[in-house]
Amino acid sequence: MTAPPNSQLQVRLATADDLAAINDIYNYYVATSTCTYQHEPSSDAERAAWFAAHDARHPVTVAELAGTIVGWGSLSDFRGRWGYRYTVENSVYVKHDVQRCGVGRALLGDLIERARALGYHTIIAGISAEQKGSVVLHEQAGFTRCGQLREVGHKFEQWLDVLFMQLML
Questions:
Q1: Helices marked H in the chain — which ranges?
Q2: In degrees, to the nearest 5, what angle opens at C-alpha 153 toward C-alphas 109 and 24?
Q3: Which of 11, 48, 92, 106 has a 20 to 30 A CA-CA distance from 113?
Q4: Residue 144 in contact with residue 165, Cβ under 8 Å?
Q5: 89 vs 4, 32, 58, 96, 131, CA distance in Å?
Q6: Are strands 60-65 and 158-168 parallel, antiparallel or unpaired?
Q7: Which of 72, 67, 63, 71 is nearest to 9 (CA)?
Q8: CA distances for 52 relative to 20, 100, 122, 134, 157, angstroms
Q9: What is the mean pLDDT of residues 88-107?
């Protein structure tokens, strides 16, 4: 599927009905990419528990095009301690066959606006350092590099670095 120019892409809050599509998009990358360090696909029950752990202050969104979910994003706790309550971590996943069509940009832009409206102070992104597309997406949205942890992940028989990026709201 390729997003047409000037498409009618809609970003909205996710519902429980979207979980199968969210899981399909995520599990594709579990099997094929280092953008997540998870090794086993998420089950439906795991995805439902993840969704239940998100609330009005930690939204999950989807990007929909012609009735099809083509990406999702979320704001999650950065750390569980009270002192971090004004900081969130973002996630953005785009269906593999519609990358570089503006879906990720739309999802991330929406998450940034939601974070501002919710009164957050900063957003953190933890990105596998070799995921150049994700790094560029975040840089274009105003995130700056703030640290890199070397060889903290391991997948596909390789050691992986995590790049942390931050957007001050």
A1: 19-32, 44-52, 103-117, 132-140
A2: 50
A3: 48
A4: yes
A5: 30, 23, 9, 22, 17
A6: unpaired
A7: 63
A8: 14, 30, 23, 26, 33
A9: 96
Query: What are residue 135's phi and psi, to 5 degrees?
Result: -65, -50
How far is Cα of residue 50 from the mean position of the Cα atoms in its chain? 13
Residue 81 backbone dihedrals phi, psi, to 5 degrees? -85, 150
Residue 55: what pLDDT? 96
Q: Is the pLDDT of residue 125 over 90?
A: yes
- For tokens 């606006």, what's the residue? 113
Spell out the residues 6+ positions from residue 83 whose beta carbon is closer than 8 angstroms to its own. none
Q: Find how far residue 155's CA is from the centre of its chain.
A: 19
The per-residue pLDDT for 7 is 67
Q: Which DSSP category does 97 fall into?
A: G
Query: How far is the C-alpha of 166 from the C-alpha of 18, rounded, in Å?
Result: 28
Pairing of strands 158-168, 122-128: antiparallel
Model pTM score? 0.94
Beta strand spans in 48-169 (E): 60-65, 68-77, 87-94, 122-128, 144-155, 158-168
User: Phi/psi zone of residue 142: left (φ > 0), alpha (ψ -120 to 50 degrees), beta?
Assistant: left
